[in-house]
Amino acid sequence: MRLYIDSCVYVDFLGIPKTDLDEVMSVKASKFFCYILQKGHKILLSGWVVKETEKILSNQNITWESLKPFFSVYNNLIEPMPYTKEDQQKAKELYPSNYDDALHVILAEKSKADYIITSNITHFNAIKTAIPILRPSEFLSRSL
Description:
Elements: E1 2-5, H1 7-14, H2 20-39, E2 42-46, H3 47-57, H4 64-71, E3 78-81, H5 85-94, H6 99-110, E4 115-117, H7 121-125, E5 133-134, H8 136-143
Parallel strand pairs: 1-2, 1-4, 2-3, 4-5
Protein backbone atom coordinates (compact mmCIF):
# COMPACT_ATOMS: atom_id res chain seq x y z
CA MET A 1 0.00 0.00 0.00
CA ARG A 2 1.21 3.50 -0.88
CA LEU A 3 0.49 6.18 1.73
CA TYR A 4 0.90 9.91 1.30
CA ILE A 5 1.20 11.25 4.84
CA ASP A 6 0.52 14.92 5.56
CA SER A 7 3.03 16.91 7.61
CA CYS A 8 0.66 17.28 10.57
CA VAL A 9 0.82 13.49 11.13
CA TYR A 10 4.63 13.64 11.34
CA VAL A 11 4.37 16.49 13.85
CA ASP A 12 1.82 14.50 15.86
CA PHE A 13 4.12 11.46 15.75
CA LEU A 14 7.00 13.50 17.14
CA GLY A 15 4.86 14.26 20.19
CA ILE A 16 5.31 17.99 20.43
CA PRO A 17 2.01 18.85 22.12
CA LYS A 18 0.56 22.33 22.30
CA THR A 19 -2.78 21.22 23.78
CA ASP A 20 -4.21 18.14 25.50
CA LEU A 21 -5.76 17.10 22.18
CA ASP A 22 -2.28 17.05 20.62
CA GLU A 23 -1.22 14.40 23.13
CA VAL A 24 -4.10 12.18 21.97
CA MET A 25 -3.15 12.83 18.35
CA SER A 26 0.43 11.86 19.16
CA VAL A 27 -0.66 8.46 20.49
CA LYS A 28 -2.81 7.83 17.40
CA ALA A 29 0.01 8.84 15.05
CA SER A 30 2.45 6.58 16.92
CA LYS A 31 0.11 3.60 16.54
CA PHE A 32 -0.29 4.44 12.87
CA PHE A 33 3.47 4.57 12.21
CA CYS A 34 4.01 1.31 14.14
CA TYR A 35 1.38 -0.36 11.96
CA ILE A 36 3.06 0.95 8.78
CA LEU A 37 6.35 -0.53 9.95
CA GLN A 38 4.73 -3.90 10.72
CA LYS A 39 2.97 -4.11 7.36
CA GLY A 40 5.74 -2.60 5.25
CA HIS A 41 3.52 0.02 3.59
CA LYS A 42 5.29 2.56 1.38
CA ILE A 43 5.60 6.09 2.75
CA LEU A 44 5.42 8.64 -0.05
CA LEU A 45 7.51 11.47 1.35
CA SER A 46 7.30 14.63 -0.71
CA GLY A 47 9.71 17.50 -0.52
CA TRP A 48 6.64 19.61 0.25
CA VAL A 49 5.91 17.55 3.40
CA VAL A 50 9.52 17.99 4.51
CA LYS A 51 9.37 21.76 3.92
CA GLU A 52 6.03 22.12 5.72
CA THR A 53 7.14 19.96 8.65
CA GLU A 54 10.30 22.00 9.09
CA LYS A 55 8.23 25.18 9.03
CA ILE A 56 5.90 23.83 11.73
CA LEU A 57 8.81 22.65 13.88
CA SER A 58 10.96 25.74 13.43
CA ASN A 59 9.57 27.18 16.68
CA GLN A 60 11.15 24.20 18.42
CA ASN A 61 14.48 24.67 16.55
CA ILE A 62 14.03 21.24 14.96
CA THR A 63 15.05 20.55 11.36
CA TRP A 64 14.14 17.60 9.16
CA GLU A 65 17.84 16.73 9.00
CA SER A 66 17.90 16.32 12.79
CA LEU A 67 14.91 13.94 12.55
CA LYS A 68 16.56 11.53 10.11
CA PRO A 69 17.89 9.24 12.88
CA PHE A 70 14.42 9.19 14.43
CA PHE A 71 12.89 8.03 11.13
CA SER A 72 15.80 5.76 10.08
CA VAL A 73 13.82 2.62 10.94
CA TYR A 74 11.46 3.61 8.09
CA ASN A 75 14.21 4.21 5.49
CA ASN A 76 13.41 1.14 3.40
CA LEU A 77 9.72 2.18 3.30
CA ILE A 78 10.24 5.81 2.29
CA GLU A 79 9.86 6.77 -1.34
CA PRO A 80 11.12 10.34 -1.80
CA MET A 81 9.03 12.56 -4.08
CA PRO A 82 10.29 15.86 -5.39
CA TYR A 83 7.82 18.51 -6.46
CA THR A 84 8.12 20.85 -9.41
CA LYS A 85 7.13 24.40 -10.28
CA GLU A 86 4.46 22.86 -12.52
CA ASP A 87 3.02 21.02 -9.49
CA GLN A 88 2.97 24.28 -7.56
CA GLN A 89 1.26 26.13 -10.40
CA LYS A 90 -1.35 23.40 -10.74
CA ALA A 91 -2.05 23.63 -6.98
CA LYS A 92 -2.53 27.39 -7.21
CA GLU A 93 -5.01 26.91 -10.05
CA LEU A 94 -6.83 24.00 -8.40
CA TYR A 95 -7.47 25.61 -5.05
CA PRO A 96 -5.89 29.05 -4.60
CA SER A 97 -7.24 29.61 -1.09
CA ASN A 98 -5.71 26.33 0.17
CA TYR A 99 -2.63 26.00 -1.98
CA ASP A 100 -0.65 23.97 0.61
CA ASP A 101 -3.14 21.12 0.82
CA ALA A 102 -3.92 21.27 -2.91
CA LEU A 103 -0.23 20.63 -3.55
CA HIS A 104 -0.36 17.60 -1.23
CA VAL A 105 -3.29 16.22 -3.23
CA ILE A 106 -1.52 16.81 -6.55
CA LEU A 107 1.61 15.06 -5.28
CA ALA A 108 -0.41 12.16 -3.86
CA GLU A 109 -2.13 11.71 -7.22
CA LYS A 110 1.15 12.02 -9.11
CA SER A 111 2.72 9.32 -6.92
CA LYS A 112 -0.32 7.03 -7.22
CA ALA A 113 -1.03 7.01 -3.49
CA ASP A 114 -3.69 4.61 -2.23
CA TYR A 115 -4.55 6.93 0.68
CA ILE A 116 -3.85 10.43 1.93
CA ILE A 117 -3.38 10.37 5.69
CA THR A 118 -3.93 13.60 7.63
CA SER A 119 -5.12 14.82 11.01
CA ASN A 120 -6.75 17.75 9.24
CA ILE A 121 -9.55 16.23 7.15
CA THR A 122 -11.53 19.48 6.87
CA HIS A 123 -8.97 21.28 4.71
CA PHE A 124 -8.52 18.31 2.40
CA ASN A 125 -12.19 17.51 1.87
CA ALA A 126 -12.68 20.77 -0.03
CA ILE A 127 -10.23 19.56 -2.68
CA LYS A 128 -11.56 17.04 -5.19
CA THR A 129 -9.63 13.78 -5.48
CA ALA A 130 -10.41 10.12 -6.00
CA ILE A 131 -7.88 9.18 -3.31
CA PRO A 132 -9.51 8.39 0.06
CA ILE A 133 -8.49 10.89 2.75
CA LEU A 134 -8.37 9.45 6.27
CA ARG A 135 -7.13 10.29 9.73
CA PRO A 136 -4.50 7.85 11.08
CA SER A 137 -7.07 6.28 13.41
CA GLU A 138 -9.56 5.83 10.55
CA PHE A 139 -6.91 4.13 8.43
CA LEU A 140 -6.14 1.76 11.30
CA SER A 141 -9.84 0.99 11.84
CA ARG A 142 -10.21 0.04 8.17
CA SER A 143 -7.01 -1.98 8.14
CA LEU A 144 -7.26 -3.99 11.34
